[in-house]
Write a structure and sequence with these properties.
Helices cover 37% and strands 17% of the residues. It is built from 17 helices and 24 strands. The strands form 6 sheets. It has a 6-stranded antiparallel β-sheet. A hairpin with a 5-residue loop joins strand 18 (433-439) and strand 19.
Length: 558
Amino acid sequence: MEANNKVNGLEEEKIKGPTNPMVTPLLTDLYQFTMAYAYWKGGKHSERSVFDLFFRRNPFGGEYTIFAGLEECVRFIANFRIGEDEIAFLRQALPPTCEDGFFEYLRGIDCSDVEVYAVAEGSVVFPKMPLMRIEGPVAVVQLLETPFVNLINYASLVATNAARHRFVAGKSKLLLEFGLRRAQGPDGGISASKYCYMGGFDATSNVAAGKLFGIPLRGTHSHAFVSSFMSADEIVDKSLRSSNGSTTCEDFVGLVQSWLNKLQWTESLRGSFGETNQSELAAFTSYALAFPSNFLALVDTYDVVRSGIPNFCAVALALNDLGYKAGGIRLDSGDLAYLSCESRKFFCAVEKEFGVPGFGKICITASNDLNEETLDALNKQGHEVDSFGIGTYLVTCYAQPALGCVFKLVEINKQPRIKLSEDVSKVSIPCKKRCFRLFGKEGYPLVDIMTGVNEPPPKVSERILCRHPFNESKRAYVVPQQVEELLKCYWSGDSGAPREELPPIKKIRDRCIQQLDQMRPDHMRRLNPTPYKVSVSAKLYDFIHFLWLNEAPVGELQ
């Protein structure tokens, strides 16, 4: 199913359904339907409600999170309809006392009376601030809770994980997502590829994600390809045309062997290796014949320094003779810092000895269960890796399995509501709110502030009191040099109100990178980062505590 909506009052192309066809109205918890029935039975189902979607703690011990998953939420509600098969199943799943009229009600509902306000996807966000504000009939919005939380939770978690890996690796390194085979199922693999790219990775090995989202693809061969060869005799077609097509080398295998002999007799390389593994050389040669313009070899099947690197260089130099430039090597085991440095030395020696421009700068890619800690350790040890292929720890979010988004009612029929708890961190912030980011004179964000929807917004160069929502002693005056409103309309239903366009993934990725660059360095560091301040206006602070006292029962001592 696809749905129309309007952008700035103009009819736009239909919004496609969710990427994963399993994202349907039944992808929810049973209690959402039991509550919907109870709302309907009590005549409350059409009451206008406001819910906030937010999280309580930043993941991975850090002090920031990347918001992701918004587009999938909009796709979901744009095509939200409960079909006949689904209604038939719900009749069986719900108690037999549920009246027929409820199922007729379900048959007719959609999200035309729902509005969604959200932070732009790819933004840096913080605990307690609403990522999304959903307004609409309470029964309908309740049915959106589980799908929305599901679509935001993992997306934001893995995008944040990707951004953290990018921060440690540095801007100059190429980051490749290699996690499909270790991801939690097909949806985990597809989602990881999408949101890792959004979080700052450069490419993926996941072909399906490349097709779906236009993410650049990277990949060459595995150890199996190398070990499948026994000798160069297996190579049938040994000819290779030059890159400009002007000549043909009839015996590329022989050209490679002659270059290996030259390397073995080169004074500056003498002693670094002897006889190399000839089956590995055959595999590299065969792969170069198949992909002369994209030759990148996995060099650790047998021995990196004594075989893999010299064999690679022999093939790369033969390709160079024909006008091709080798892509590089991949290291998938061993001491990556040491092996990358030894490889770089070898490449530089070859460039100097044979006068091949740029050979010393050949790309070195490293993989093998990398994570934030190993990247940080490599940086401290010193390495020559240009590109990192990261899989398991990235896509599984091994350091923290869930973000912990929640979906709380904050207003119904224009009456603010609050959820109380003995754990203060779980007390919700009531009423329909506006959210702003205040920037200081150096251009960094200083504080995020929530205000009541009817309060005047913060103004540039005008002092405003920012208060911690629950701690009365934590407060500060801020004179913002820039004010950015965070929540924008992304779904307006049939109201006709203008809404924000859903940008392509490349623009979301650019936004993420720009937002991270904008953050103060002490908020970003891996160890002991400074917490970012999230506050409420003085008026909202007073109202929170008034409502808290009003709703909390008064105990009695006897």
